[in-house]
Design a protein that fits this description.
Elements lengths: L1 H31 L12 E5 L6 E2 L14 E7 L6 H11 L5 E4 L1 H6 L1 H10 L2 E4 L13 H19 L8 E2 L8 H9 L3 E3 L3 E2 L8 H15 L2 E6 L3 H16 L3 E7 L47 H4 L7 E3 L4 E3 L46 H28 L35
Parallel strand pairs: 1-10, 2-7, 3-4, 3-9, 3-10, 4-5, 6-7, 8-9
Antiparallel strand pairs: 11-12
Helix pairs in contact: 2-4, 2-8, 4-5, 7-8
Length: about 425
């Protein structure tokens, strides 16, 4: 038994030594493959995928991601090329011998074709990101989405001069997915890329914040696809620090390329395409089942009467025994108050007796009584005497006013054309005609 234990201990020690030797050999190989930087992060391996088998990847939106091992990261960059930031990103990746995947906008490729060609010369994977980067793929007509996809591929291919240089990888702008778009991409053999974690470098934040978000989210999942933008100056500024931190924390970079007839896919298992295949599924809360009631065939109960409630108009509730009175706001434990009767509306029923139409009034109703002639003559004489007493006073008052025109009864008055006839002030005598 001790001999067996000693042999097992020796085998375990030999296994650990061989593992350490392989790790050191891999690190040395990566350092030697990056001239001028012996401490470079490098690219640990190349992953070859078949876009027709797994058409959608990225746990930000889909159930699958790339078949990565723990502490493996894939770097992706969107929206380029755009000098000078894209050139700065290329220089940083080259200094660390890191390979990444770039999703090109067709309009940018048409404007800066040299930037796309530099990506190919550096050995990076080149995918596409539509023609104009519209943030409406989730609601635009499928015909327009197809045109955006095809135009972006055509301009990127024209910049490279080789259709085979463009990988069948596509990322929807803004990650605004739509089933019709995904189905169209799958029908063309193009893999739809989402991501596992972004760094929010498109927001107006500092490069230090972008670095913090990238490292925090990578550490949270342990592996995955990182979404960055090479057109952002804050991304180009923080990228050297990000690569050094990934190396210090034991992360490795994986380069992803599509399978071709000359380059077979990397063997994988279905479970390898899950983010954490060995993790226990989260418990999902569900609503309890709705009970199904069976009602018996019973007769309808009669509605209680007002006397059953013992409720009076003065809002006093009587409770047995009758010598105790409970008022609203002070009830016993077994007494329930009733709501007061609403003041409005009330259902009033009044008997209205039918009435006949009123008769039309007679003409004599509107006849005014006539005054006797003697009374009329007396009223006229009184008016004349009153005018004689008041007329001189008014004439003297008008004569004293400066600038006024004296009005005399016996003077010829001048009448302006189109004006009303001039009349004297006061009353004048005249014949009184009685009818």
């Amino acid at each position: 038994m001790p001999v067996l234990a000693k042999g097992l201990r020796a085998a375990l020690l030999a296994s650990l030594l061989s593992t350490s030797f392989l790790a050191s050999t891999l690190t040395t190989a990566r350092a030697e493959s990056c001239p001028g930087n012996p401490d470079a992060l490098g690219t640990s391996r190349t992953l070859v995928v078949d876009p027709t088998e797994h058409t959608k990847i990225g746990t930000m939106q889909y159930g699958e991601t790339l078949p990565l091992k723990d502490h493996e990261v894939v770097l992706t960059f969107d929206d380029g090329p755009l000098p000078p930031h894209s050139n700065q990103v290329l220089q940083t990746l080259a200094s660390e011998c890191v390979k990444a995947t770039f999703f090109i906008i067709g309009r940018m490729a048409h404007q800066f074709p040299d930037g796309v060609r530099r990506l190919r010369e550096a050995g990076h994977t080149i995918g596409t990101h539509s023609e104009n980067h519209p943030l409406s793929f989730n609601r635009m007509p499928i015909e327009r989405a197809m045109q955006e996809i095809n135009d972006g591929i055509d301009h990127t291919t024209a910049a490279l001069g080789d259709p085979n240089a463009v990988a069948p990888f596509f990322r929807i702008p803004g990650l605004l997915r739509a089933e019709g778009v995904e189905e169209y991409l799958a029908s063309r053999g193009i893999m739809t890329w989402s991501a596992d974690f972004p760094a929010d470098d498109w927001r107006h934040i500092s490069s230090a914040q972008v670095l913090h978000l990238a490292l925090t989210r990578i550490e949270a999942k342990g592996k995955g696809v990182l979404l960055l933008h090479d057109i952002q100056g804050r991304t180009a500024a923080m990228l050297p620090t990000l690569l050094r931190e990934l190396k210090a924390r034991g992360y490795r970079i994986v380069h992803v390329v599509p399978a071709t007839p000359d380059r077979p896919k990397t063997p994988t298992e279905p479970r390898d395409w899950l983010m954490h295949p060995d993790a226990h599924p989260a418990l999902v809360a569900s609503w309890p089942a709705v009970p199904r009631f069976v009602f018996a065939q019973t007769a309808m109960m009669a509605a209680p009467g007002l006397e059953d409630t013992r409720y009076d108009d003065d809002m006093t509730i009587f409770h047995k025994p009758r010598d105790r009175i409970f008022r609203p706001g002070r009830f016993a434990a077994d007494t329930v108050p009733l709501p007061p009767e609403p003041l409005w509306p009330r259902s009033l029923q009044r008997a209205v007796a039918p009435v006949n139409d009123l008769p039309a009034p007679d003409r004599t109703v509107f006849r005014a009584p006539q005054m006797p002639r003697a009374e009329l003559k007396q009223m006229a004489a009184h008016s004349t005497q009153h005018a004689e007493r008041t007329l001189p006073a008014r004439a003297d008052t008008s004569a004293d006013v400066t600038g006024s025109i004296a009005v005399q009864a016996n003077t010829a008055r001048r009448q302006l054309p189109g004006s009303w006839p001039v009349t004297p002030i006061g009353l004048h005598r005249g014949p009184l005609t009685l009818h």
